[in-house]
Amino acid sequence: MTTLEQMGAKAKDASRFLMTAGSKKDIALGAIAAALCENCEEILAANKIDLENGEKSGLTASLLDRLRLSEERINGMADGVRQVAALPDPVGRVLDGRTLKNGLQIEKVTVPMGVIGIIFEARPNVTSDAAALCLKAGSAVILRGGKEAFHSNMAIAKVMRDALEKAGFPRDCVALVEDTTRQSATELMQLSDYLDVLIPRGGAGLIKSVVENAKVPVIETGVGNCHIYVDKSADIEMAKNIVFNGKTSRPSVCNALETLLVHKDIAEKALPVIKAELDKKNVEIRGCDRTKQILGDCVVSATEEDYRVEFLDYIIAVKVVDSLDDAIAHIQKYSTGHSECIVTSDYNSANEFTARIDSAAVYVNASTRFTDGGEFGLGAEIGISTQKLHARGPMGLNELTSSKYIIRGNGQIR
Amino acid sequence: MTTLEQMGAKAKDASRFLMTAGSKKDIALGAIAAALCENCEEILAANKIDLENGEKSGLTASLLDRLRLSEERINGMADGVRQVAALPDPVGRVLDGRTLKNGLQIEKVTVPMGVIGIIFEARPNVTSDAAALCLKAGSAVILRGGKEAFHSNMAIAKVMRDALEKAGFPRDCVALVEDTTRQSATELMQLSDYLDVLIPRGGAGLIKSVVENAKVPVIETGVGNCHIYVDKSADIEMAKNIVFNGKTSRPSVCNALETLLVHKDIAEKALPVIKAELDKKNVEIRGCDRTKQILGDCVVSATEEDYRVEFLDYIIAVKVVDSLDDAIAHIQKYSTGHSECIVTSDYNSANEFTARIDSAAVYVNASTRFTDGGEFGLGAEIGISTQKLHARGPMGLNELTSSKYIIRGNGQIR
């Protein structure tokens, strides 16, 4: 057995304990939250090593900021764990049921997944956030974080495992892969004897590697090439506000706007208004020929690649389209299936867009930035699924469960 | 583009038509049913070629029977298509919804998967059954059948595609892979640009190949190493009937019983009664040492492999266990997560078993043979999922859909 297989086997055992742990899970989560606060100094000391290493290896200021912990941030992590504990138990809900003619009583109930693998990148707070959600959902979790946060993640995982043990839980309910090489990520993607599902949280590169290598069921998350289409009937003021919010309120996240499509009949009026707003944040515009005709030479010529890519930056691709059909065709071609929006005052255009756009979240007259578990009222979020199997869009605790049928009889045979 | 990629691109286009086809899908299904009956002779002629080839290549009598079509069987296929048409539309159901404080109206609605791939083996009737279910669920389907049924499948697919075209639908709503080499199956498993989900229907070999090779989301189906545990408090007469039914009513299917576990306190009384019943069908018993002590030398010594394998035959593995805990531990070790049963008259044992056994269907005092979409009242079945993601147990039309969020606002920004 490899180290990872041993970890998988231990996690599988722990998952059997969790399966029937019921509300005791909340006690364990409370213990974890308290332990995070109590061991704040140890965690900060480990974080300091990561920060020093990060500075030496030339991490950008924004990456260093994502990596940095403080007493306040650790208290925030503990609060997050307590909030998860306070949510309703997603396990044991009866989803469906009936009594068959032969007297069999059949019910479909939610059950834990078993063992969940999570691959994530720079932020150390994901260690406690993700572990808390998996525990609450009755599953053991194997975490594999990025090398930048290695010492922080190790310290946080140790605190959680110690707290679990003190609370009478197997410490292997939470495990952290100590090897942060690419090899260990690939091995985790292929741990099919032990892993019931893998959730990669990261950029396009990680998702691509998972699609190529995974031999366990996967929930893809996060890549968002999000579009907004400004219909000819749009309220230009509203369109301007939604574009500005979608593009500039937080350009680095997956629900940020990447491409603006504008109907030709409104482009001459709308584009200058939108551009003036985007100029406030120095957003670079990469446009089609018609966009350039309207906005002038300040617009960079958009390439095919510009329509395909997730900029995650103060850059927006713009295209003038002839019709709603053309806008839909463009989105069908380039979308990653995350979030798209139409701004319109036309009832039929709104219906057409919501019916034909096949993305996790389809908006009429609202910012794509709302695609988020917290905003949607799911209580907490483990990620945003861009696939169609099992979960689509923001995933909360319910999406971390599976189901089984329980059938009660008194001797029925077929 | 390879031939399969071209097929995938056409199927994706067709799926966009189907996405908004609504109740027109039922008209197309009616046309397909009528066309199957009208073109019965052509289909039978193609089937005759497969049967002749099968005889030449030495297919077993039971495989030849599965392959054989008749006017009656083709009418049965047409009836199956009509029954699917009569089911409620699984697309457009509102699963959840709320109005947020900021006024956003959010709803989660079911939508088609898009393009579904199905790999199946000998039975040509799967061609129309599976296609009808996928169409009703609003998805295009790419079918890849076994080489034994090649001519039959081609004829059935042609009839369906012609009927679709006459009904005003794209004929590429249904496609059949003409290449029946192993290579084409592998290529289909990796068609990630076009396939939204792959459902392999077949034995352990196919499932293993899919786990190894697939780069698209998969719903695993069908491998069932099903267990029955006869508790010390069991009604022996009931246990006897359920074991006999589970093992002998149809040994070749995935919900058939493979292993019998018996509590030591009841083994001496129960095993001879059960054996006498199984003898009526000459079931071979492979038992542990204690089983042999009770039943004598007619029992073959069970190997580790006997507890692991799906016999799909008149063979049963038997083991005497010390406790409910031991029975559960055995099942956790060897089960494929399909269907397991406890026979008991003890309330706590029943609860313990249903809570701790992590399989798609967990029975108290009833035969595992009930694990079936029709028996469960799902209306129709595309297969039985043995994985935890998306669908578990018998899958009907609802399990062939995905969902999306539609969010309606009036200018909200975040």
Quick overview:
With 414 residues, chain A is an alpha/beta fold. Chain A contains 15 helices and 16 strands.
End-to-end distance of chain A: 43 Å
- Share in helix of chain A: 40-55%
Structural class of chain A: alpha/beta
Cα shape of chain A: globular
Our Rg estimate of chain A from Cα atoms comes to: 24 Å
- Strand-residue fraction of chain A? 15-25%
CATH superfamily of the largest domain in chain A: Aldehyde Dehydrogenase, Chain A, domain 1
Number of strands of chain A: 16
Summarize the structure in words.
Two copies of one chain form a homodimer. By secondary structure, chain A is of the alpha/beta class. The first copy, chain A, has two domains: 3-220 and 387-408, Aldehyde Dehydrogenase, Chain A, domain 1 (3-Layer(aba) Sandwich), CATH 3.40.605; 226-370, Aldehyde Dehydrogenase, Chain A, domain 2, CATH 3.40.309.10. Helix content of chain A is 44%, strand content 21%. Chain A contains 15 helices and 16 strands. Chain A has helices spanning 3-19, 24-38, 40-56, 61-67, 71-86, 125-136, 150-166, 182-189, 204-213, 236-248, 264-279, 289-295, 304-308, 324-334, 347-356, and strands spanning 94-99, 105-112, 115-119, 140-144, 174-176, 197-200, 226-230, 257-263, 284-287, 300-301, 315-321, 339-343, 361-366, 383-385, 393-395, 401-412. In chain A, strands 10-9-11-8-7-12-13 form a seven-stranded parallel sheet, sandwiched between helices. A four-stranded parallel sheet of chain A has the order 5-4-3-6, sandwiched between helices. The radius of gyration of chain A is 24 Å and the shape is globular. Chain A starts with a helix and ends with a strand. The mean pLDDT of chain A is 96. Strand 16 (401-412) of chain A pairs parallel with strand 13 of chain B.
